[in-house]
Amino acid sequence: MKMFRLFSFGLACLSLAGCATVSESEKSSAAETAGQGGVKSPEAAIPLSHTAVSTYLGGRDPIEGVNRSIFYCVDFFYYWLYRPVGYVYGSIVPRPAVNCINNFTDNLEFPRRFLGSLLQAKFTGGGIELLRFLSNSTIGIGGLFDPAWYWFGLPRQDEDFGQAFAAWGIGPGCVLQLHSSTNVRDAVGMIFDYAVDIKSYFYGGQAFTFLNRGLNIFGQYETARRSTFDSYQTLKDYQLLVRRIQLDDAFSHAPRKVAAGPVRQGRDEAGRERLPEYYSQGSPVDTLRSDWLRPGEDWWWVRLSFWNRNFARLAETGEVTPEADGKPVQYRFWLRENDPHAPLVVILPGVGGHNSAATAVALAELCHRAGMAAVTVSNPMNWEMVEAFPGTPPGYGPDDVKNLRKVLRQVVAALKQEKVATEEGKRPFAPSRVMALGYSQGGLNALLLAARDEREAARERLFDRYVAVNPPVDLLKALDRLDEAFRALDDRSREEAFGSMLEGAGRYLYTVRTPAQLEKDGVPVPRENDPGKARTVDQVPIDEAVARVLIGYSFRRSLEDMIVCMHHQSPVPGIRTPYQWGNRQALYDELSAWNFRRYSEEVLLPLHSARRGKPVTLADLNREAGLRAIAPTLRNNRAIRVLHSADDFLLDDADRNFLRETLGDRLTVFEHGGHLGNLYRDEVRQALVKALQESR
């Protein structure tokens, strides 16, 4: 008890110090950010698009060096200690048993949620928790099952002492990245959470709970850790966002559906393919449905199991080093047993996408099920490619494709050294065809690769087929529209804009996340949901402005991660704040005023002007990097196929007319879908497979 009091007192003192630090640093940061963005108004009037979102969500990070050290120690623990133990445990206990144990341990945490509700005067929530505990402890066989939700519709109330302290007006203090805490206030609240948790009074109860719950989320953690340069910042931002959504009660438990209307099939009067029962909400909101395309899950065994057959889990990995002074580039591949001559599909992700991106892996799975081998590589604007080509800032199409081609040549050559198991023994992999499949900017890169292949001798050509899904025609125009998307709420006060963003994020996360992810963040899974599959509803329950902001923010985070990686290699022109391992908060604050256009003006223009010995304009670079620059290739190369949406907000009418006039019958246009927002539909996936398999 004495140690408990001393620890609580120390954290309380740290909280006060953190709050003081937050106050002063936020003022200076706000003034600086306002100056960078040309905004003269007070801090409250600084628009959302010029705000460091993580700072606004969680406050300052004055002990960032300590937090990063803790993070990497935890990461070491997860990867080298937890993972081996998890493999053994997860191979013995199947997922249904893991989920029942999770239900049991969650039921024992009833006092935390019950008291957390009452301390916030949420008496209805407290009553619901009491009823849940009684019904689950009896009908649910000690909490192994959740009849309170599945039978009686009583949702789990995700409340705790940290939220109660926030409701009392206690400030968050500084950011503090401990297990399941985001700041000093939550860390103190966590002590009380453990104190009222029944498991805390049984030896090993908390440790066993940690082991069991981690099995369902390790895959997502590992992907986030691998796919970004600054995994600390990425996971911190996500954790802060989820916590703010919890504090604001912004999770939506009931995404709205629309009444089924008449089924429209075939093509419309403009020749666009209709998707039966696809109820469009407009291009930006439809675009958010792109996350509904996910690789399949093995719901009998967890990811950390030797028996797990998840498609992502079955991937083999390799790496190549395209530049002597650069770092290796990793790729991920799936060959086909008993078919050493299966066609090979190289999948190219969109802006900043990693080779483990969910969309890329889902497309690889689609191709694999259709009888093809598949390999995924990272986008040229991903941190991994930035490190592989030091001194070559990405974002200029011809340079990107030149570097990408170096990588792909080595990847294809390496795959041809692989052995495929057949009934007659192992045989070298010798694909009958090699095809490029790109989506978004990856689609643009696939088409630019077609033009580059045409300039090579026949023996140097890489691909026999090029398929692009929703490629931008004019890259600068597309990036400008992404920048504009993040400014969709700038006409509102920052508080109102953030409130709308948080509410929209809560609703959006609910529509795309799996039950295991939802339960981790305290969101009940609806009774009719098919366990283990992404939540698929007819509509995403947010409005267009919020959808634009979420899209813009997603791409802005990719840009920030890329620039920080570049700044780590050598100072990036136009950035005043130096790169520091343990203090990057000021750097991220400065980057909050950057967007794709500013990156192009500050980084790409000076570089290419110096290379050419004369000033160049963005219009010059854009002309050379878009699809109009390779119009003859698009018009004459019969190996090219393009799938697009008629309402993709990254295109305008001139772009659509260009594609239609240039590609003719090699262009398939769907009536709705926004940007990649119809890829989850069977009709679109079947059209994509057909485009790859066509002989001509």
Give an overview of the whole structure:
- It is a single chain.
- This protein has 696 residues and is an alpha/beta fold.
- Among the domains are: 121-159, no CATH class; 312-475 and 627-693, 3-Layer(aba) Sandwich (Rossmann fold), CATH 3.40.50.1820.
- 50% of the residues lie in helices and 7% in strands.
- The protein has helices at 2-36, 53-58, 64-92, 95-107, 110-119, 123-138, 147-150, 161-167, 184-195, 205-227, 231-247, 283-287, 358-369, 383-388, 397-415, 441-454, 475-485, 494-512, 515-520, 544-569, 585-591, 596-612, 618-625, 631-636, 653-663, 682-693, and strands spanning 316-320, 329-334, 344-348, 373-376, 419-422, 425-428, 434-439, 465-469, 640-645, 667-670.
- Strand 1 (316-320) and strand 2 (329-334) form a beta hairpin.
- Helix 3 packs across helix 10 (205-227) and helix 18 (494-512) crosses helix 20.
- The longest helix is centred in the first third of the chain and has 35 residues, at 2-36.
Q: What order do the helices and strands come in, and which of them pair?
A:
Elements: H1 2-36, H2 53-58, H3 64-92, H4 95-107, H5 110-119, H6 123-138, H7 147-150, H8 161-167, H9 184-195, H10 205-227, H11 231-247, H12 283-287, E1 316-320, E2 329-334, E3 344-348, H13 358-369, E4 373-376, H14 383-388, H15 397-415, E5 419-422, E6 425-428, E7 434-439, H16 441-454, E8 465-469, H17 475-485, H18 494-512, H19 515-520, H20 544-569, H21 585-591, H22 596-612, H23 618-625, H24 631-636, E9 640-645, H25 653-663, E10 667-670, H26 682-693
Distance between the termini: 77 Å
Instruction: Give the strand order of the largest sheet, numbering strands 1, 2, ... along the chain.
Output: 1-2-4-3-7-8-9-10
Helix percent band: 40-55%
Sketch the major β-sheet.
Answer: 8 strands, mixed
Shape: globular
CATH superfamily placement of the domain at 312-475 and 627-693: Alpha/Beta hydrolase fold, catalytic domain
Strand content: 5-15%
